[in-house]
Amino acid sequence: GNYTDDKRTGVWHFFDADGQVMEHFNYDTNTLLYEAPEDTTSNIRYVLDDKFKPTDRVTKPIKTGGRYFAYIPYLKQFKLPADMENISHEQYVAVLELLITPLGRLADFKIHLKSAVYERVMNINPNLLADADKTFIPASLNGEPVSCRIFIQCYLNDFDEIDMK
Prior knowledge:
There is one protein chain. This protein is mainly β. The protein has 1 helix and 14 strands. The strands form 4 sheets. Strands 6, 8, 9, 10, 13 and 14 form a 6-stranded antiparallel sheet that branches. A 3-stranded antiparallel sheet has the order 3-4-5, with no helix packed on it. A 3-stranded antiparallel sheet has the order 7-11-12, with no helix packed on it. A hairpin with a 4-residue loop joins strand 9 (106-114) and strand 10 (119-123).
């Protein structure tokens, strides 16, 4: 995509690590033009705070930039607690939890570090992120914006960081 005065302009094309198109987004009109279908093997889950029926039309919240690269700023906020520096990485999973408001703003950000017998929840201050990283296309229920939680299962890598599969 292009920049004008340090702002994204025009249509941007986002790809995954394998070079497959994930999104086309028009920054001039603030419009999602295309998003690649998300399959059932995705490590991302969406939970609406509202009840809905199978006949309702529901959309998920979308973070422009693709389903991997758009979430990198959130992954970078993780710091393994000092008292856990010697844990076995294979025994733990990390789950990113983001609460998105009906206005498409990040309201809450947590990281759950879990094993079979232990869970620690780390609250992350959303204000540590750039404003653009706190903006989403909100979820909707029958065309009306609603709150939604995004849960992303991650893993601990060899550098004590979290990453997505």
